[in-house]
Amino acid sequence: GQARRRHWLGPRNMPFNITPIDGKPAAQIKGLDLSQPLDPAVYRALVQTLSKYPVLVFHGQDLDAAAFHGFTRGFGSLQEHVLHKYRHTEFPGLSWLTNVASDGSVDEFGVRRATTWHSDGSYTAIPPTLGILHAYETPHTGGGTLFIDMGAAFDRLAPALQTRLRSLTGLHRHGAGPGGDMYDNSLSDEQKENHRDVFHPAVTQHPDTGRHILYVNETHTHKFAGMNKTDSIALVNDLLAHAVQPDAIYRHQWTPGDMLIWDERSTIHRGEGDYTPTARRIMLRAIIDQISIHE
Ligand code: OGA
Ligand code: MN
User: Fold this and answer.
1) Among candidates 176, 146, 162, which has minimal Cα distance to 248?
2) Whose CA is nearest to atom 6 of ligand 1?
3) What angle do CA 42, 46, 47 make, to 5 degrees?
4) CA 82 to chain centre
5) 271 Cα to the center of ligand 1, angstroms
6) DSSP secondary structure string, 88-142?
7) Is residue 42 a contact partner of residue 16, using CB atoms and an 8 Å limit?
8) Which helix (H) or strand (E) holds 26?
9) Residue 135's beta-bridge partner residues?
10) What's the whole-model pTM score?
11) Could you report the per-residue pLDDT of 158-174, keeping only the tens digit for each?
């Protein structure tokens, strides 16, 4: 279908303050208290801002699960986490990203969980649009989250490779990519049955901007249609190596009260790991299925 293009209005026309983070695909947003009900115009402006800065950073927010649920629902419907054990009992659309078990013990696997590059839910037929994290307890050093803008990554590829990629289709399955074993790949057998390959073009177009995006990640992309396994894995690894230029990474060092909103369609991310395994790291997450902002 015909993509609907929104026009970037510029920072002065936004109902909040936008401070770009120098040279990174991220901006800090000031002047909003996300625990209070927000006007639909504010939600629309945030979504619009994401088409220029695909990672939005807020500091000093204080939302309990109910308030976080209310805030995130304003963007649209929530996608329930594939792993039931992570779901919030009262709000199944929210999930815990935590290394602290219910008995208070710290799960040392938390340091490695989700530390390979991925886009959440790329293994679903209609991948989600936004990821949102709100931090409650964070390690003092390390334990960041890293982001890459895959529109910019596509632009950095050689034209001949861009052309070749535009005719390729990627096969995605939960944790099946070359980096998948570093992911928390603990689906039940029944869930594995339900997880079949889904097909996504290797190059997608952002629905709001029309921009080309390299839609490949090392966690879930394991093959290209018509290409053998070895060549496919080599290409995935090669593309990731090109995409993940150290200078292009936005690295978020977490502080309690931080909120991050990112565009799942145009970025990949990973946990940094690299923190004291016994340090507590507790966040709530919401994954927005499809954006639908109601008046
Ligand atoms: C995830 C994830 C990032 C992090 O669990 O899907 O991306 O910093 N986590 O923990
Ligand atoms: Mn993730």
Assistant:
1) 146
2) 114
3) 120
4) 15
5) 5
6) -SS-TTEEEEESB-TTS-B-GGGGTTT-S-B-TTTTSSS--SEEEEEEEE--SSS
7) yes
8) strand 26-30
9) 283
10) 0.95
11) 999 999 999 999 999 99
